[in-house]
């Protein structure tokens, strides 16, 4: 996931939701209140999002170029979810990594007077002004993952937890190695000048502090590509003949890392991936490689963004919550997928 900017878990009012819980919540029927014998509960039921057809809503969707498996999954999740609603029309742009071009695409959607916008900006800071423009035009914006520089540029933010990815990867590895004396781990990170990479590494390092028997002995930064994953992993393998675990930030670059591992004939350590690609889940299920787990950065957030946009366009809240309005911020949970639970998450795996 090549994100020029990502959210900080401490910089906004986070509501922590698991991926499955978020999807179920947004698509839930009427309300989760068990006791509906009061006027207030009836009012909440009437204002809560549900999957019954309602007011027609046109949603404009603008994202970056799908030049990565995760970004392509984002687009597919949005399209698939929109098709599930008879009352939703989706206006989707081609996607671009050129900020000026993406701004132009969003301005076209504003001029078309769509009811709601879902925007995954190529660069959150650079596209803040067009988010503000939409909000000032009375078009609510659902800011997806890469956050705008101003909270006034969006009505709701929804995205993943990069720090949580590292934290959960570190805790998983720590639990596997907690009884091993002088355990060693290495890290294959993403692009180092991206905030998301720094957050993932920070979470990983913080988790390892709970395991004094474990020492991180090596780290290389790749570029979220198969080629970079292979070359950087080969360097790590050459530099470290003995280690017990590897955390790789991204399953796409993990394809290259696995090639390097196979070429080196190494199987003396466990590997944890990141994001939740289908090929990684298939390997975890087969249990015949060093890859034993992956930490999710769920592309299902795009489907949930469509749910939120629909609710905004219809003036409804969210099933499962007592509030009449949708939250200002939703941070999705980075679940660890292992052989024990992989069947549950396989449907969310992306190619």
Q: Rg to the nearest angstrom?
A: 21 Å
Number of strands: 13
Measured distance between first and last alpha carbons: 13 Å
- What's the level 1 CATH class of the largest domain? Alpha Beta
Q: What overall form do the CA principal axes indicate?
A: elongated
Q: Which structural class best describes the helix and strand composition?
A: alpha/beta
Summarize the structure.
By secondary structure, the protein is an alpha/beta fold.
Describe the structure.
The protein is of the alpha/beta class. The protein has 2 domains: 19-160 and 299-332, Rossmann fold, CATH 3.40.50; 162-296, 3-Layer(aba) Sandwich (Rossmann fold). Helix content is 39%, strand content 18%. The protein is built from 12 helices and 13 strands. It has helices at residues 19-26, 39-46, 69-83, 99-111, 128-136, 162-177, 195-208, 226-239, 251-264, 278-286, 301-313, 342-345; strands at residues 16-17, 57-62, 88-92, 116-119, 141-144, 156-159, 183-189, 214-221, 245-248, 270-275, 291-296, 329-332, 336-337. The strands form 2 sheets. A 7-stranded parallel β-sheet has the order 1-12-6-5-4-2-3, sandwiched between helices. A 6-stranded mixed β-sheet has the order 8-7-9-10-11-13, sandwiched between helices. The longest helix is centred in the middle third of the chain and has 16 residues, at 162-177. Residues 1-49 have low confidence and may be disordered.
């Amino acid at each position: 996931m090549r994100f020029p900017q990502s959210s900080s878990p401490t910089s906004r009012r986070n509501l922590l939701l698991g991926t499955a819980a978020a999807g179920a919540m947004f698509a839930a029927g009427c309300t989760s209140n068990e006791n509906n014998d009061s006027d207030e509960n009836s009012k909440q039921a009437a204002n809560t999002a549900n999957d019954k057809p309602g007011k027609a809503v046109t949603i404009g969707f603008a994202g970056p170029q799908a030049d990565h498996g995760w970004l392509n999954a984002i687009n597919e999740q949005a399209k698939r979810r929109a098709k599930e609603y008879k009352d939703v029309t989706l206006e989707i742009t081609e996607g671009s990594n050129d900020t000026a071009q993406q701004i132009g695409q969003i301005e076209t959607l504003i001029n078309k007077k769509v009811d709601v916008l879902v925007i995954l900006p190529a660069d959150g800071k650079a596209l803040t002004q067009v988010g503000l423009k939409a909000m000032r035009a009375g078009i609510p914006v659902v800011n997806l993952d890469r956050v705008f520089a101003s909270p006034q540029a969006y009505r709701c933010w929804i995205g993943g937890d990069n720090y949580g990815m590292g934290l959960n990867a570190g805790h998983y590895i720590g639990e596997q190695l907690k009884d091993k004396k002088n355990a060693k781990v290495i890290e294959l990170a993403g692009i180092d000048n991206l905030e998301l990479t720094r957050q993932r590494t920070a979470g990983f390092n913080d988790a390892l502090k709970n395991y004094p028997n474990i020492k991180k002995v090596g780290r290389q930064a790749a570029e979220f590509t198969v080629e970079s994953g292979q070359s950087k992993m080969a360097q790590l393998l050459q530099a470290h003949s003995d280690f017990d675990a590897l955390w790789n930030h991204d399953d796409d670059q993990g394809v290259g890392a696995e090639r390097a591992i196979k070429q080196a004939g190494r199987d003396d350590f466990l590997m944890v991936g990141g994001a939740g690609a289908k090929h990684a889940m298939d390997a975890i299920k087969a249990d015949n490689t060093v890859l034993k787990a992956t930490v999710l950065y769920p592309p299902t957030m795009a489907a949930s963004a469509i749910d939120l946009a629909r609710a905004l366009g219809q003036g409804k809240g969210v099933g499962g919550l007592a509030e009449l309005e949708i939250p200002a911020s939703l941070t999705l949970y980075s679940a660890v997928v292992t052989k024990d639970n992989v069947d549950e998450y396989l449907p969310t795996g992306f190619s």
